[in-house]
Amino acid sequence: MGADSQQDVRVAREARDGRGTGVRPAVPRRQLLAAAAAVPALVGTAGPAVATDQGHAAEAATPVPTTDADWTAVARALGRTGEMVRGLQYHVAFPRSDLRVVSHGVAVTPGLALGSHVSFVRYSDGTTMLMGDLVVAESELQRVSDVLQARGIAQTAIHKHLLAQTPDVWWTHVCAHGTDAVAIARDLRAALDRTATPPPRPTLPAEPLDLDTAGIDAALGTKGVSNGEVYTCLFLRRETVTNDGHPLPPGLGATAAFNFQPLGGGRAALNGDLVMVADEVQKALTALRRGGIDLVELHNHGLTDEPRLFFTHVWAVDDAVRLAKALRPAVAATNVKPGP
């Protein structure tokens, strides 16, 4: 490229970006416009890119596949192992089996509504994102918040998932993003250590549940899974969701989850949440109430998600299949698909 062409490109870039050298360029308007139009052909393109704050182009970071072995040091820092979900997120659970919580006369199991959990995702730019939800007793909330803040882990929501609960329990959603996954895990561990979260227990074979799980599946149009404690049905948002500009793996931070805890005779306590965008909220809430399902909370789980997501937590006690049928219209009002 000759000197004149380089000058044309420079001037065109400055004109396009709204910045200049402070000296009026001695270039005729016709030549300036022609140079601006020629910039894409002169500088070329380098594949998918996103605009940065400086107005330049940068490669868009995407989640990269990992294996359990890639997270060995993270597991060591957390004091427990997790499991891979869809090959992209390392999920670690911290069930609060130490808590004895009752809601509307139902003894709540960890699987129904007392499970802290986090996921780690590695990106093509070498960074790692942590997202999750911590269950904390009211007496633990402030000191956990202090540690999270001191360690640089963001609290993106603080709310409840249950009605009329004894004792009071809170949920705080957390998010962190950095280049050192092990340091993030240590910081999270420091917060968890301010709670009475028990150490991991051996995984036992799942016992059959006193529920018509085939009927639940048929009513909801998905295939649920049992952990021996509750039966869970998942739905994932169909669109790609980003957090702080980073695309999330399917389901991370954008999942509708419904847990059925058997109470005997085919009855169940239902707890969980439905994920929605703004124009779905009223339709979904109306459908839930028409089905006799109690609304617990309406809130966000994140701060920078796109599209902006809203979650409503629900509660009900009834025949499990009847509950699933009552959920179906609300699920149908949202842009979700059955989760694997």
**Average pLDDT rating:** 86
Beta-strand share of residues:
25-35%
The chain-level structural class is alpha+beta
Instruction: Characterize the quaternary organization of these chains.
Output: single chain
Helix content: 25-40%
The description of the largest β-sheet is: 7 strands, antiparallel
Shape: globular
Task: List the uncertain runs.
Answer: 1-58
Number of helices: 9
Provide the succession of SSEs.
Answer: HHEEHEEEEHEEHEEEHHEEEEEEHEEEHE
Write the layout of secondary structure elements.
Layout: H1 3-17, H2 29-43, E1 49-51, E2 57-59, H3 72-78, E3 83-85, E4 89-95, E5 101-103, E6 106-108, H4 110-113, E7 115-122, E8 128-137, H5 138-151, E9 154-159, E10 165-166, E11 169-178, H6 181-192, H7 213-220, E12 225-226, E13 231-237, E14 242-243, E15 246-247, E16 255-264, E17 267-276, H8 281-290, E18 294-299, E19 305-306, E20 310-319, H9 320-332, E21 336-338
Antiparallel strand pairs: 1-2, 3-4, 4-7, 5-6, 5-10, 7-8, 8-11, 9-11, 12-13, 13-16, 13-21, 14-15, 14-19, 16-17, 17-20, 18-20
Helix pairs in contact: 1-2, 3-6, 5-6, 7-9, 8-9
Q: Which key features would you list for this structure?
A:
340 residues; alpha+beta; 7-stranded antiparallel β-sheet; 21 strands; globular; disordered N terminus
